[in-house]
Design brief:
The strands form three sheets. A six-stranded mixed sheet has the order 8-9-10-5-11-12. A four-stranded antiparallel sheet has the order 4-3-6-7, with no helix packed on it. The chain is built from 23 helices and twelve strands. It has two domains: 2-374, ABC transporter type 1, transmembrane domain (ABC transporter transmembrane region fold, Up-down Bundle), CATH 1.20.1560; 395-471 and 554-562 and 580-645, P-loop containing nucleotide triphosphate hydrolases (Rossmann fold, 3-Layer(aba) Sandwich). The protein has helices at residues 2-14, 19-28, 34-66, 68-75, 106-156, 159-164, 167-174, 176-185, 187-209, 211-217, 221-258, 260-265, 269-322, 333-374, 435-440, 465-469, 486-491, 499-508, 512-516, 535-549, 565-579, 614-620, 623-644, and strands at 97-98, 103-104, 396-406, 409-419, 424-428, 450-455, 458-459, 472-475, 553-557, 583-587, 599-604, 607-612. Helices cover 62% and strands 10% of the residues. The longest helix is centred in the middle third of the chain and has 54 residues, at 269-322. It has 645 residues and is of the alpha/beta class. A hairpin with a 2-residue loop joins β3 and β4 (409-419). α9 packs across α10 (211-217). The relative contact order is 0.08.
Length: 645
Amino acid sequence: MMGNRDFAFRTEAMKPKAAGATLARLWTRFRAHTPVLLTIAGLIVLSTYLQVTIPNLLGQAVDCYLTPATINALAANVPGAPATPAAPGPTCWFIHIDPSANTTNYAVGLTKLVMVIVVMYVASSLLTGLQFYLMNSTGYYVLRGLRIEVFEHIHRLSLGYFTKHEAGDVMSRITNDADTIQQAIGFPLVSVVQGSLLIAWIAYDMISDSPIYALVSLSIVPLMYAATSWYSERAREAYRKVRSRVGDVNANLQENLSAVREAQAFNREGQNIQTFSESNAASRDASIEAVAYTSALQPTLEALGYVSIALVAGVGALVLLRGTHLPGTAMSFGLIITFIAYVQRFNQPVSQISIMWTNLQSAVAGGERIFGFLDTEPDLQDLPDARAMPPIVGRVVFDHVWAGYEPGQPVLRDISLVAEPGQTIAIVGPTGSGKTTTINLIPRFWDVTSGAVTIDGIDVRDVTAASLRAQIGIVLQDSFLFSESVLNNIRYGRPDATDEECLAAARLARADTFIERLPNGYNTLLGERGSGLSQGQRQLLAIARAALANPRILILDEATSSVDTRTERLIQKALEELLHGRTSFVIAHRLSTIRHADQVIAIKDGQIVERGTHDELLRARGFYYNLYMSQFRRDLEFAAVVGAS
């Protein structure tokens, strides 16, 4: 089993994928929430404006109010004229000049400016919180829709998919992988969008204030981009491994939970624990590798950010101390403060986007697995012009049928048989002869590779699977019961059935006697897979479920092979009523239960070797006779041993 898992892991984790295509497919899920997204976009623009304006106001506080040279220049302005510095610089807010006294009230203006800066900081925080709420709530709606889409696709896939893929790995896509996507499509996505806008806006303002100084300030950006690209690519590869390994852990866990009884019976607890430990260790190692790349990016960008601030401060101070100017720039202490604030603001979203983008690789890996699952085409699909199956009369024909699960490896070879309406067809043969494959072709769980299966003259491939299966009832050897009440488990056969109809089906199946002895009768809640009930009781409920559905064709796949003789007789009585008037196909483990079948089909190595009634085949003393007598002798030997003991 581990070899298969390792092969699946290598196949899925290593194949190249386009992160942009995955993110684009995720984004299409947001189209239904366009009004909310437009609101968030408006909040992002407003919040970004506030964050870009604050550094400019900090520079004003220095140049317009705290630098003596600027104050003196302002005092020399003509009374009543707009207050501006002597040299080109930032526009000054709230400078108030008294024309009569030719004085300027700097304290009042500075107080107002500080209050505006505080209000902008508070407003920016509130807007960020509102964005967080709106985007995360929208993300949860998208996540819900994505999970439903995956769940619906699970029910569309053919049985062949689930014979090759473990249930735990499929479950991981709707739980763990979906959770990683939520980590990306919520507030982190807003942070990336807002950060990108903030970077562009700050860069524009920096270039507007001083192109040369802006080039100095942004000279480290190429190094930041290179570091982000290198780390994010390796993080994405690592997160692909993580998602596949998590699926492996879930598959291992689900398998062991289902096989607890077998593990205890064969003393395999230690081996199973060791296997799970190895699977868990592989998941741990993959996670550590991914975290290593993610963690290394933050200090790298932070160090480059400090280098950028040092360049801005160093170049600005050098120019200011020498009393020179950069081309097209009036250098001032306030401008240096403004650019340092710009660089800090610039580096912050760069760092955030880089970290978010690296973490986004986990979501991309989860999205790749989910979309890869959604892109899986069912092996069996309705034809474009498929019609609904009309009410079935019950004539079933196998016309030179060949079938198999793998190309070039047929399981059934040239099977031909006819079941008239109301007949019971028994199918017998050794294990692996093709009995179950034969009956699986009727409800079209599998398709023939050659020949045809028709019902009332209609090829089952020409009608919709849902309309076909709605008129076919199936009772398996180990029927599945849900963690629901007994009544709801019976009603599973026909959801719109009344309580009275469910009770009538239980009586027909001879299940009413044991149900009434349960603590809460028909309202008793069952455990997982019907735990708490015997195998025979579970089979009686499955028969009641099939009886409630009232199918025209009934399939019984070794329905009595796992019950005791007394319960078998009880089930046989229930089946006699259920089979009456229906076309039935019965796979029998105990040949004594098919004596009254209208036709017995003996299959060996995928071919029909004998056919006839029970008595006819016994008189022929062929394959069926030998099969029957070998089982009869085993029963006699068993009875003798029991009698002797």
